[in-house]
């Protein structure tokens, strides 16, 4: 094996010395006079001595790329012949065919996408462009303190600080509870009782969790540190099959949880999740730092259903859509949901671009693969046995619309593996809220001071019932 240093020495010794005199002649463009000299190899194949090429021999000889007029004239004359014209036609067809195939394929995709959109008759039951004050004949504020089953950290209010209309937009804005009652009251000595004030909207207004809380420093109980709003059409507008369209921009701020979703009006199959839940779109206020993260760059769509609360089949009916620039909290997007007896589809921007499709083909209970008995030995039976469409149930009843922005929670929407999460889902809501508030210096700087950026902004809402209008 030849030593690299020996090769280097050979190459160095074989290169002719450069002219050393300052008056030495230099060729045009600053080239030395010896540039272009003929090579003087001294390699003996019999003796195996090392090659002796000059530096010039390392370069390919210059070849002119100027067109030879004579050859060009011959080419033009040849093209004018019958054979030349035939070859030109063949070349043209060879180029044209792939182009036509591509155009036909693109047209086929467009037509297929258009034809895949179901053609139904619809009756408009709700259209709100928020051009004036909030229409309270349509929208109702849900006011609770307990976190709505998710152990969220927000107290929902009807305050104009948390929901209002302006310039043709609806704003749902989270604020710090300390801004309204003081920071000391969050921690100790403040009694919040929505039952007493007559404002609690929980189904059980005497529920101490949903409607009241008292801060106590000794016991570590704090007032929900965030105030926000939750607007619904419960009791005013609902549909059984149809479609919903909302144009909105999501909020910015760590641990904010915006949602556009639907809940059953009558819960004919029983309490959650037996009667279902339709999450049209949900997102997160955290800004992503990696493409793989599912934060403000992602919205998800989910159906919740199951025989009991800890057997929720949502993993079988869940999907996301992702953007790589202009995140969902940076520009307005249009979201739509189309729902009939055969399934539910959710799309972004245009109906021909769905990102969530679920078909009602299999008995819902069989689809879930639920066990026959719970951990305590109680038999688990299908809550949808009485439905005439067991594949569609529980999504075969009236649902109403909800718009809200929550903060935090221990139900797992914000997983414990999420970046810099200041609380643990394994803790009870009291401990989780306290940890969240105690570490506000980690998340509060991410909340814009401008409420229009911190909140979810809704341009319009439309909702249609499947079928023709009857009157």
Automatic annotation (TrEMBL):
The chain crosses the membrane at residues 92-115. Residues 1-15 have a biased composition (Basic and acidic residues). GO terms for biological process: carbohydrate metabolic process. Gene3D superfamilies: 2.60.120.200. Residues 1-25 are annotated as: Disordered. Residues 119-469 form the GH16 domain. It holds the Pfam family Glyco_hydro_16. Keywords: Membrane, Transmembrane, Transmembrane helix. One of its GO terms (molecular function) is hydrolase activity, hydrolyzing O-glycosyl compounds. Belongs to the glycosyl hydrolase 16 family. This is AT18611P-RELATED. It comes from Ceraceosorus bombacis.
């Amino acid at each position: 094996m030849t030593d690299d240093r020996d090769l280097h020495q050979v190459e160095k010794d074989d290169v002719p010395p450069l002219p050393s005199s300052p008056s030495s002649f230099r060729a045009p463009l600053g080239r030395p006079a010896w540039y272009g000299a003929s090579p003087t190899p001294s390699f003996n194949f019999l003796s195996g001595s090392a090659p002796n090429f000059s530096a010039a021999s390392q370069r390919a000889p210059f070849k002119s790329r100027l067109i030879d007029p004579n050859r060009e004239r011959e080419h033009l004359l040849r093209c004018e012949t019958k054979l030349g014209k035939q070859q030109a036609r063949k070349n043209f067809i060879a180029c044209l065919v792939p182009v036509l195939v591509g155009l036909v394929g693109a047209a086929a995709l467009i037509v297929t996408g258009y034809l895949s959109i179901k053609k139904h008759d619809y009756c408009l039951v709700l259209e709100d462009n928020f051009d004036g004050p909030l229409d309270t004949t349509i929208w109702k504020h849900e006011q609770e303190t307990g976190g709505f089953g998710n152990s969220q950290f927000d107290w929902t209010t009807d305050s104009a600080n948390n929901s209002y209309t302006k310039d043709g937009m609806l704003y749902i804005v989270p604020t710090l509870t300390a801004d309204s009652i003081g920071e000391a009251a969050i921690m100790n000595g403040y009694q919040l009782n929505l039952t007493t004030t007559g404002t609690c909207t929980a189904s059980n207004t005497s529920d101490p969790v949903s409607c009241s809380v008292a801060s106590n420093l000794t016991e570590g109980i704090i007032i929900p540190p965030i105030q926000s709003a939750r607007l619904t059409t419960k009791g005013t507008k609902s549909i059984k099959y149809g479609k919903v369209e909302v144009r909105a921009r999501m909020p910015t701020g760590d641990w904010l949880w915006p949602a556009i979703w639907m809940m059953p009006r009558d819960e004919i199959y029983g309490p959650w999740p037996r009667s279902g839940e339709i999450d049209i779109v949900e997102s997160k206020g955290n800004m992503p730092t990696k493409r793989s993260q599912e934060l403000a760059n992602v919205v998800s769509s989910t159906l919740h259903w199951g025989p009991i609360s800890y057997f929720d089949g949502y993993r079988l009916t869940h999907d996301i859509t992702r953007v790589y620039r202009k995140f969902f909290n940076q520009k307005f997007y249009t979201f739509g949901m189309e729902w009939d007896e055969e399934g539910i589809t959710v799309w972004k921007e245009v109906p021909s671009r769905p990102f969530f499709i679920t078909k009602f083909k299999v008995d819902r209970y069989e689809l879930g693969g639920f066990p026959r008995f719970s951990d305590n030995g109680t038999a688990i039976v299908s809550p949808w046995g009485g439905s005439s469409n067991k594949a569609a149930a529980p999504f075969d009843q009236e649902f109403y619309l909800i718009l809200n922005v929550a903060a935090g929670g221990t139900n797992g929407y914000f997983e414990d593996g999420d970046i810099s999460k200041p609380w643990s889902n394994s803790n009870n809501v009291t401990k989780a809220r306290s940890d969240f508030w105690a570490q506000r210096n980690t998340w509060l700087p991410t909340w814009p001071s401008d409420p229009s950026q911190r909140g979810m902004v809704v341009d319009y809402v439309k909702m249609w019932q499947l079928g023709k209008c009857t009157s």
